[in-house]
Model the fold of this input.
Amino acid sequence: MDEHVLEKLGWGSPFQEAWRSRASEGEEPARIGADYGVEYVLYSARGDMRATIPGRLRMAIRKGQSVRPVVGDWVSFEPRSQEGTTVIQAVLPRRTQLARKAAGRADEEQVVAANVDVVFLVSALTRDLNPRRLERYLAVAGDSGAQPVLVLTKADLCEDVVAARERIAALAPDVPLHTVSSVTGEGLDALWQYIGGNRTVALIGSSGVGKSTLINRLVGSARMEVGAVREDDKGRHTTTHRELFVLPQGGLVIDTPGMRELGLMENEEGLRTAFTDIEELSGGCRFSDCRHQKEPGCAVREALQSGQLAPERLENYRKLVQEATRSPHEPQKRRGR
Ligand SMILES: Nc1nc2c(ncn2[C@@H]2O[C@H](COP(=O)(O)OP(=O)(O)OP(=O)(O)O)[C@@H](O)[C@H]2O)c(=O)[nH]1
Ligand SMILES: [Zn+2]
Done:
């Protein structure tokens, strides 16, 4: 087993240990590079290959005894002597997972990518700069276990980058923030600190903010056709057939149609990551279940009065809490351009 090739695919200690503890004879590890539903692309020390899920694993998935493999997952497979399709034997425990609500099934989440180390929360420094949306992205990242990094694109189109930066930094004081331009190249170097060490990066951001362009800049060759999206039979836009990209300088980038549709995950953990300042302040409220409205001894409203907390921030927090506690009844919004 060529550990060096595997390392470039993001193989590391937690997976190695999981591997040793199961270590079935004749099996080898591989990472899911693309998920076509019925068929997968595996990256392994033997190169890339196609794979399917055998009936036994399919049954285990149906019974909830195994997760369904997604892009970024480490799996074990049994190499066959001849070229062609192989089968996935098992899915290794995940370190992180990015998920969204399954369409039409409010209680179920759908994992769209696994073992993501860093999530770039991408917004354009133009009209797209929407604090509320950013906070939703922070909530999704907070649920995943991956490290969030705010990336503000199209700096070349923004007249007052400093002001925009400050506005966004105030929304998430603890999250690193970078302004970049894929046109001038400004700020791109700083992103490598998150990708180095063979880490896996995923991008969340609305359509047109420049995710594909940014990925192309990072990948270093036009492996994705920017703007040349096609629609598949479900009316979704798909931009590529490979969904996990191994960067020549090291590091990996995940980009899947599912990633692009990521919505808000509705649970408390996500809220905490997005609003650490308000969560911390509420520790000082007299009542532990304080809703920061008319309750006496509310530390959050005190901070508001003293100017320590921006009113818009509390307003956004309330909206997000409302959204998270409301039973989802709206149909999924169709993605348009
Ligand atoms: N001026 C400027 N334009 C950019 C920059 N980055 C991307 N663009 C342009 O913005 C448009 C959208 O970029 P994409 O990379 O396709 O955006 P995307 O986020 O991948 O969009 P979807 O594929 O719809 O999810 C393209 O016309 C890009 O050329 C930038 O830094 N500066
Ligand atoms: Zn309070």
Q: What stands out?
A: The longest strand covers residues 105-114. The mean pLDDT is 81.
